[in-house]
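Input (structure):
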C-alpha cells in the first residue's frame, strides 16, 4: 500500500484543477536516473494498464505500475510547504539512500 496524506491529496486536487485534469488519474512511478540512481515521478494520465495497481483517496484515483510498486510499497507521499522546503515528499522505507533534495533515491 502507498499512503497519500490529506495534505498531498489536497495539493493534487489543486494541480488537477489548474491543469484541467480533474478527469485523470495520478500516476506515481520510479524511473532510472537522478544522482542516486532512481527518481520519483508523477503525472496525470488516463492510460491505465490491466496489471497496474490502482486505488482512490478522497476522490482522486492513483495508479502505479507493478515494477514501481515494488519500490514504492509502504511509502507515504506527503506535501510540505515551510521555510526550508516546498513540494511533494516521498517517505520511503525501501530506500537505502537519497540525494539532498529528496527527488532521487537508491535501493
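Output (sequence):
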Amino acid at each position: 500500500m502507498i499512503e497519500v496524506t490529506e495534505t498531498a491529496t489536497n495539493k493534487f486536487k489543486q494541480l488537477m484543477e489548474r491543469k484541467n485534469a480533474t478527469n485523470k488519474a495520478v500516476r506515481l512511478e520510479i524511473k532510472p536516473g537522478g544522482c542516486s540512481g532512481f527518481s520519483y515521478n508523477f503525472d496525470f494520465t488516463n492510460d491505465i494498464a490491466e496489471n497496474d495497481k490502482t486505488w482512490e483517496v478522497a476522490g482522486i484515483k492513483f495508479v502505479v505500475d507493478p515494477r514501481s510498486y515494488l519500490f514504492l510499497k509502504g511509502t507515504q507521499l506527503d506535501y510540505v510547504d515551510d521555510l526550508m522546503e516546498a513540494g511533494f515528499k516521498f517517505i520511503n522505507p525501501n530506500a537505502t539512500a537519497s540525494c539532498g533534495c529528496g527527488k532521487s533515491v537508491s535501493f
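Notes: The helical segments are 6-18, 66-72. Residues 3-102 form a domain with the Hypothetical Protein Aq_1857; Chain: A; fold (CATH 2.60.300.12).
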